[in-house]
Amino acid sequence: MASVLVVEDDQFVRSALIRHLSEASHTVRSVGTALEALREVAHFRFDVVILDLGLPDLDGGEALKMLRSITDVPVIIATARDDESEIVRLLNDGADDYLTKPFSVEHLSARMAAVLRRARAAGEQAPPPRVIRVGGLAID
């Protein structure tokens, strides 16, 4: 299954997500702040990140921009914020999907499956790395 990072400051919500994802055979790590999330992504490989926006140290939108500067891992925003202009902005800033709370675990599972399917398909279609050789020098 997938390796998932849950970034959620509400302990009750985080525990419920961890329980559901673990029961679905996913490997789960979780943190409660944006800075912890950035540290996790820098040290571990994840298949998907579930990111809340209302984090105590940094707005999730800023965290998304920082995540995008270091990784292309799929990010699903999971938040109570439902302002359409904010949803559009975050999707344009690099979120792969947006889910408003409250949501069912089935809804989250379906969106995760769709995001992972698209990510895997994109990885399979990526062209092989191009290597330029000049004399004894190879640049990739």
3D structure, described in words:
The protein is of the alpha/beta class and 140 residues long. The protein has a single domain (3-139), classed as Rossmann fold. The protein contains five helices and seven strands; from the N terminus they run E-H-E-H-E-H-E-H-E-H-E-E. The strands form two sheets. A five-stranded parallel β-sheet has the order 2-1-3-4-5, sandwiched between helices. The protein has a two-stranded antiparallel ribbon with strand order 6-7. The longest helix is centred in the last third of the chain and has 21 residues, at 105-125. 23% of the residues are buried.
CATH fourth-tier homologous superfamily: Response regulator
Helix content: 40-55%
Shape: globular
Largest sheet: 5 strands, parallel
The CATH topology annotation reads as Rossmann fold
**Strand fraction band?**
15-25%
Mean pLDDT: 91
Helix segment count? 5
* Total tally of structural domains: 1
The N- and C-terminal alpha carbons lie at a distance of 31 Å
What's the level 1 CATH class?
Answer: Alpha Beta
Number of strands: 7
Alpha-carbon Rg, integer = 17 Å
Q: List the helices and strands in order.
A: EHEHEHEHEHEE
Structural category: alpha/beta
**Unreliable stretches:** none
Strand order of the largest sheet: 2-1-3-4-5
Architecture, according to CATH?
3-Layer(aba) Sandwich
Question: Keywords, please?
Answer:
140 residues, alpha/beta, Rossmann fold, 5-stranded parallel beta sheet
